[in-house]
Each structure stands twice: as structure tokens, then as C-alpha cells.
Amino acid sequence: MSTPALPLDGIAVRNDGRRVVHPLALAVPPGRRVALVGPAGTGKTSLLRVVAGLDAPDAGTIRIAGRDATDAPPEARRAVYLHQEPVLFGLRTVRDEVAFPAIVRGVARTAAHRLAEQALGRVRAEGLAGRDPRTLSGGERQRVVLARALAADPAVLLLDEPFGALDPSLRAQVREAVLGALDGVRAAVLLVTHDVDEAAAVGDRMGVMLDGRLVQCDAPAALLAHPASVSVARLLGHPTRLAAHVDDAGTAHTPFVRLACALPPGRACVVARPDAGVARSDPAGDAVVRTVLARSGGTLLRVERDGADATVLVAGPIPAPGARVRIDWDTSRLHVLRVEEGDDVG
């Protein structure tokens, strides 16, 4: 792995005397993307503001492109921070908007306009170059702001909920354009979001922040498949959380399924995403449908057995609430986790 363009070492943040980010270490290599996901108030934006130089850290060191930037002013950091709401300068044309950072760096206007055209092409917005920025839609503004950031040739690009202000119909479209624009850039990209699917789509690596702590960081597929705790599993969308008991032989027992694990005897929790189980109508089945959940990606069932409930996929005709079903479990998609204080266990 190449030397990180953005290594953070022991960074901590206080706000109004309260620690909102606990000491963490994180490294983003040049041309790579790390997406941090977590609920509101968990310190994601506070971390970005410190990296951008808008706030000071309580502890730790920030290096950008090989230089200590911990105490450097924002303009000296080679970091561009994009807020959720795209902000334009109000210049005459979109071309002027995107060329502005290069002109500030001393690039001749004609050359800066060429750079602007190239940056707009990267975000699939070359047709906007001659437009008045005041006439742009939300999705167009987002693309133009990203093009302006790329034209500034930053070492670090900080994205704060970059698609949060867009309508759902535009969100996926703009995200696809942004991903295409980021392919091949030299900047280290650090994105924060509360949307798990967005973090998984954008990041080469994906980190989970809870209560101001970076609790897990891995490749998106690995993190989604192997959450480190019940709290992480809940955030990542594992709706099934089954109270379990691990016996002396290392078998976790739940009302639905038994499976081997490496935990010591005692309380545990089995977590799963909906694709871990498939329900089929069966009058002799040992589970009962409680709720039919219609989703854009297909129908899910909330099923119950012996006081425990799970969310699973459905195969064949969709059974009605109260019907009995048989569930086939893919045990490789079930995870037995230790129960921590405060965990929401079924």
C-alpha cells in the first residue's frame, strides 16, 4: 500500500467541553476512498472539520501529503471540504466557478478554463460550462461543486453527506457520476454519511463510527459480512438479532437455529441480514408469519418462533400473516457475537 496522503494519528475532538471524537487512527492512501458511516451525532462531521482545519483537535496529529497539518490554516492544507449543501461563489458562468481555484493558484485564465472544462467532463457536466450558476438544479450544483474541487487538485477531498440534500430520484444518478469522477483521482477521499448502502458503494474501505469511536473498519463486503458487535450489526442493517445461549461444546442455541461458534459458554446474540434465511409456505412449518414487509428490492417476512422473531426472504407465493412457514438457513451468513452492555438483543 502506498504512503497515506491522509494519516490521522490519535485524533480526538471536544465540543463545548464534551469529547465528541475519541482518539482514533485512520489512514487514507492517495487515490483511495474511505467512507465513514454512523448515526447523527456520532462525531463524523466533527472529524471532517478538524481535518479541514475549521476546528482544532483536542489531541493527535494530522498529516496531509507528507506534511504536518495539525496546526496549519485551512488554506495551507491542500484539503477541500464539501458540505452537504453545495455552495457556489456566484460567478458569471459555471466555467468561471470551476476555474476559480486554479486562477487563485496563479494559473492563467485560458489554462484555468481548460482545466475547468476537463473537470466538468469528469462529472458528466460539460454541457453546463456556459450556464449561469443561479439556474442550476440541486443535482447540477452538486456536480459543479465537485468539479470545482477536482480542479483545485487537492491532496485530500472531504465529503460531508454529499448526496443528502438530493431527492431520492437524483441521489443514485449523481452518486454514479461522482464515483466515475473520483476514479483515477490522486486525492485521498474521506466521506461521511449515515447511509450504509452509500458508504458501501463509495468506499474502498468502510468505517463504522458509534458514540465518537471508530469501532470497525474494513473493505465494505468484509465489514457487512462480519460485523464486530451487535451494535455494528444493527447499524449495518442486520434486522435479525436472536438471543442465544452458548453451551460448553461451543454451540449457540436459538429458537430458530443452532450453530457452532468460538465464544465461551454463556449469553450471546446471533445476528443476520435478511438473505441469511429463506421462508417457504409449509402447513407443517415451525415458524409463523407475523408481518409481510414490502420493499423496493422484494418482499421480506417477519417470522416468529417460540417468542423470537427474525426477518427473512420469501420463496414462492407470499404467505399471509398467520401462515406457517419452513425456513432454510444459510449458516455462513449467521454470526454469533458477544453480548455487550446496552446491546439490543431479541
Rg over C-alpha atoms, rounded to the nearest angstrom: 24 Å
Total strands: 20
The CATH superfamily of the largest domain is known as P-loop containing nucleotide triphosphate hydrolases
How many alpha or pi helices? Answer: 8
CATH architecture annotation name of the largest domain: 3-Layer(aba) Sandwich
Please bin the fraction of helical residues. Answer: 10-25%
Integer average pLDDT: 92
Global shape: globular
What's the end-to-end separation, in Å? 41 Å
CATH topology of the largest domain: Rossmann fold
Quote the beta fraction: 25-35%
Poorly predicted tracts of residues: none
The oligomeric state is single chain
How many structural domains?
A: 2
**Given the helix and strand composition, which structural class is it?**
alpha+beta
Tell me what the structure shows.
The chain is α+β, with helices and mostly antiparallel strands and 346 residues long. It folds into 2 domains: 6-225, Rossmann fold; 238-338, no CATH class. Helices cover 24% and strands 35% of the residues. The chain has 8 helices and 20 strands. It has helices at 44-52, 94-104, 109-122, 138-151, 168-182, 196-202, 220-225, 230-235, and strands at 6-15, 18-28, 33-37, 59-64, 67-68, 79-82, 156-160, 188-193, 205-210, 213-218, 240-246, 251-253, 258-260, 266-272, 277-281, 287-295, 298-305, 308-314, 324-329, 335-338. A 6-stranded mixed sheet has the order 6-7-8-3-9-10, sandwiched between helices. Strands 13-12-11-14-20 form a 5-stranded antiparallel sheet. Strand 16 (287-295) and strand 17 (298-305) form a beta hairpin. Helix 2 (94-104) runs parallel beside helix 4, helix 3 (109-122) crosses helix 4 and helix 4 (138-151) runs parallel beside helix 5. It is globular. The relative contact order is 0.12. The mean pLDDT is 92.
